[in-house]
Specification:
This protein is mainly alpha-helical. It is built from three helices and no strands.
Length: 97
């Protein structure tokens, strides 16, 4: 039995549902997440910053992602360590300490 380089099943019949799903995933991954040159982003301050000073915009974006990740990880660690009732965003009994 030879190995099929195209990974086709049972004599070459392609599964159209699988191919369309793969194509949808490829289209989703190829679509730009943020386009600073789009006409809808003319009044967006971050798009203007990306167009005019890319390094500063990249630093702001990376800093925001890191800060968000640190806050989320701290809250998850607090929930795991102390239980769900001690979570920051969970309403408590109103006492601070």
């Amino acid at each position: 039995m030879a190995i099929d380089p195209n990974n086709e099943k049972d004599g070459g019949d392609n599964d159209t549902d699988e191919n369309s799903f793969d194509q949808k995933i490829e289209n989703l991954l190829d679509k730009p997440f943020f386009d600073p040159y789009a006409p809808s982003n003319d009044d967006n301050w971050f798009a203007n910053l990306v167009r005019n000073d890319y390094d500063s915009a990249e630093a702001l974006y990376a800093g925001a992602v890191v800060i968000f990740g640190v806050i989320v990880s701290q809250e998850l660690l607090k929930i795991v360590k102390y239980g769900g009732e001690n979570a920051t965003f969970n309403p408590g009994d109103g006492r601070l300490f």
